[in-house]
Specification:
The chain is of the alpha+beta class and 105 residues long. The protein has one domain. The chain has 2 helices and 6 strands, in the order ββββββαα. β4 (34-42) and β5 form a beta hairpin. The protein is globular.
Length: 105
């Protein structure tokens, strides 16, 4: 179980086996003091969670997330959570590239 912090709703504990990661993007600053992570998780019914973290060495971890219904727009959610935390554009693009090019199961 992990807890997802959302930008527009209360935090939610999820079972990672029920919400597996289907796409991700990672990056960091040149001095490795800051790391960026974006994850897209999907449940069997098609609903998705986009979550992002910014970890600063020796400081608090910043978090944002967005719940996306099965008929929702995941690309917009990735952009919004990345913008919330100041995550570089290429990290979101990496996540969306993997999302768009994943095998369909």
């Amino acid at each position: 179980m992990i807890t997802i912090t959302f930008r527009d709703r209360d935090p939610m504990a999820i079972d990672t086996a029920v919400w597996p990661v289907i796409a991700y993007g990672d990056g960091g600053s040149y001095d490795a003091e800051i790391t960026y992570h974006i994850r897209i998780r999907r449940r069997a019914d098609g609903d998705m969670i986009v979550s992002a973290t910014v970890e600063e060495a020796g400081q608090n971890t910043l978090r944002s997330g967005e719940y996306v219904s099965a008929s929702g727009h995941v690309e917009g959610a990735v952009s919004r959570v990345a913008e919330d935390l100041g995550i570089p554009f290429h990290v979101g693009n990496e996540c969306l590239y993997i999302f768009r090019n994943r095998p369909l199961v």
